[in-house]
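Before going further, learn to read the protein records used in this course. The integers have meaning only within a learned vocabulary of local backbone shapes. To see the layout at work, look at the sequence and tokens printed below.
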Amino acid sequence: MRRREVLAGAAGLAVLGGGAAAVNGWNPLESGDAVDPVELETIDAPGSEAGTAAIPERGRVTFVELFATWCTVCEGMMPTLAEVHEGVDDVQFVSVTSEPVGNTITRDDVANWWRDHGGNWPVALDSDLELTEALDASGVPYAFVIDESNVVTWSGRGEKSADEIASAIADARGE
């Protein structure tokens, strides 16, 4: 009988702890810890030059959208992202794909998709999933706003409005 009571008590504590985390809004992405910059390859596409970029860029607000060329929601987000991009200055604005470039998709495929869907800002490859893991991201599209200290101040998965994204960027800039 004693063992059953101990197990029931442990299960109750686990539920209570999970409930407390949910009530307090605990989120590992909003822990206050800085995200270490990751050097990613950027590709030659409209608004993007072949090379590398440190993401997030310390000392500057960063908006990063994780996407995939096969994702219809990502495709639908492109006009929204273009609208936000046109309305912000001095923000590192970048879209990143972690697709297996070189295996099932090429850099040219990504650049053509980018061109076909109106991309006009830097686009990068997260081939080793370093940024994806640093942000603890799962799925696409997944967007993040990171402040000048490289702390995530906002994240959103799935479809987002231009106002929601612009507001999150303004908040990170202290506006």
Observations:
- The first strand starts at residue 38 and ends at 42.
- Confidence is low (pLDDT under 50) at residues 1-28.
- The two ends are 60 Å apart (CA to CA).
